[in-house]
């Protein structure tokens, strides 16, 4: 709106003051600003410092972001074990993106022994909260029978849920299932529609 750019420095100053006073949401927001370089020079190491302050107060989103920074090696040395620790803290607070990330860590054996059964357990927790990444990942597990008995009908259901949220990969996989009649009746029209929507999302 009008005056947003003019008010940005003032908003930043209020946020910084609140963060220094120990407000977890403000600390988290400072982390986001420095990670993305919004209103401040981008500084991922400083972003991690702010995220950790909020995370240590139990801020689930901040805990998840600290995990992501360790997983990607942004602002800190890449460390899958530390990433997993932070994801777990957030996941235990039922924060769906962290639960999904726990699934990824178990599926690919990052910071922990590879375990598809545990991966599915974590994906399931996140998927039940509507996390489209978890729904998509779980769909793949059911399609391939990894960590669960193979169930192509269930895979289609999960792809469908993720696709309804606009997930391009889920739309593509759903198109493939319709095109080839896997877990669903073969339907060229539905397949074409899914592929088209997937292309629009990419």
From TrEMBL:
Family matches, as Gene3D superfamilies: Tetratricopeptide repeat domain
Coiled coil ranges: none
Pfam families found in the cross-reference section: Sel1
Family note: Belongs to the sel-1 family.
Name recorded for this polypeptide: Sel1 repeat family protein
Organism: Octactis speculum
């Amino acid at each position: 709106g009008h005056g947003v750019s003019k008010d940005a420095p003032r908003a930043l100053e209020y946020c910084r003051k609140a963060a220094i006073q120990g407000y977890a949401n403000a600390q988290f927001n400072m982390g986001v600003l420095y990670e993305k370089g919004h209103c401040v020079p981008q500084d991922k190491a400083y972003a991690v410092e702010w995220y950790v302050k909020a995370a240590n107060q139990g801020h689930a989103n901040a805990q998840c972001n600290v995990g992501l920074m360790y997983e990607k090696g942004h602002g800190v040395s890449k460390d899958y074990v530390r990433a997993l620790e932070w994801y777990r803290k957030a996941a235990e607070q039922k924060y769906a993106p962290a639960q999904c990330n726990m699934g990824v860590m178990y599926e690919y054996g990052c910071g922990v022994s590879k375990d598809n059964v545990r991966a599915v357990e974590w994906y399931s927790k996140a998927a039940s909260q509507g996390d489209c990444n978890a729904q998509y990942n779980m769909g793949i597990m059911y399609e391939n029978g990894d960590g669960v008995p193979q169930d192509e009908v269930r895979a289609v259901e999960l792809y469908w849920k993720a696709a309804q949220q606009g997930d391009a990969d889920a739309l593509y996989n759903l198109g493939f299932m319709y095109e080839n009649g896997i877990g669903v009746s073969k339907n060229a029209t539905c397949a074409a529609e899914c592929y088209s929507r997937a292309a629009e999302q990419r």
